[in-house]
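Dear Dr. K.,

Following up on our conversation at the group meeting, I've run the structure prediction for Putative ferric reductase from Shimia isoporae. I'm pasting the input sequence below exactly as I used it, so you can double-check it against your construct before we proceed with anything downstream. Let me know if the numbering doesn't match what you have in your notebook.
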Amino acid sequence: MKVQGLILVAAALLAPFLWWTSIAQGRDGVALFSQYLGLMALIAMAFSHLIATRWPGVEMVFGPMDQSYRLHKWLGIGAMVAILLHDTIDAEMRGLGRETALVELAETLGEISLYGLLILVVITIATFIPYHLWKWTHRFIGIFFLFGAFHYLFILKPFKNGDPLGLYMYVVCGIGTLAYFWTSAPRGWRPRRKYEIAKITSYGDAIAVDLAPKGRPLRHRAGQFAFFRFSGANLNEPHPFTISSAPEITGALRLTVAPLGDLTARVSRALAEGQAVEVDGPYGHFGRAKGPQVWIGAGIGITPFVALAQALPKDTPPVTLIYCLRDSADAPHLAELQAIAADNAAFELILWISPERGRLSAKALSETLPDLGNRKVLFCGPTTMQRALSRDLPAEGVPQRNFHFEAFEIRTGIGIRRFAEWLWQRREERKA
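The predicted structure tokens came back this morning:
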């Protein structure tokens, strides 16, 4: 993610300290710290809602959408931690005024916001809960943000809403509220491109879906993704898919879907020609690397590289695509990639069939491509493979800055499963 986005978030979180010296005089330091934690939670949640809008400036400030969504997740988790600490540490101060019915209501809504957000954050990081159920509950986060904002506005605090810090927090709450209402607005109010399914091609369990525009088409770059809503298949929630075709003058799009999760399995079963599709995007900066490159596409991770290969100029520096798969019989877009390799001397295609050659590793990649250290490596595929390559490629002469990967996941955990696996492995090692 972009440094300026992180700096902006850090500056916004620290901004209350501009007025802290005057506020802190004669106050209980512990209670004041608890008050600050409450402000920090609101600021973090406002940024999280802002990123969720996917407004055009979001990627410009915070980085490609895959990275912005990781920041979105951690802002939400950080806000939850701050709220828990705020609730645990006594924030009450003497001499701030008399409690009224409005103050009591604000306190009640603050409690509701705390427990509601806690439940929703647990649902978010518990990735075994089906995607469509998580997506349905996730929309309530904005409601609990509004409860939290009401709690802040009318609770007794060591400054007034008209003071500089109060005005600053008005802006924060306003941005978060506006962002929430935007993401919750009826779909007709938000810009969408309308398409229709023109053709469906099967590749074993995967399908390629060709879309024809019904009106003004989407303009994208090779390697980008978009959010697709398949209304005709009763799939009301939009889901991100990489566009697996290069930009065309006609505006036609193609996406390739494999049944890897709850929603993608439903999509692959429910689609049919003639169904309406709404498209929001495009997003992402994947594939912008310059110079000699190695592309690694594992399984359905081949999709961005199909579009990039279609758009590859013939006078480009050499590009080698490693297509990792288990069986070439039903490999998506294999014939298409072979035709591009036959027509473009700058593009080389290598099939890496794991039952025959084993799983691709950094060492095996270096042995296959002796000039690996002089190339940039682009990867799209399983997270476990990405982590292994990221860890081992520097030993083969590829620095971290030359390893690029598509990290977009609309929903991720926080590493609990990996931590449990590590503990189990340590336990088994001690037994041995």
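Two things stood out to me. The domain at 3-185 is CATH 1.20.120 (Four Helix Bundle (Hemerythrin (Met), subunit A)). The chain is about 45% helix and 15% strand.

Best regards,
J.T.
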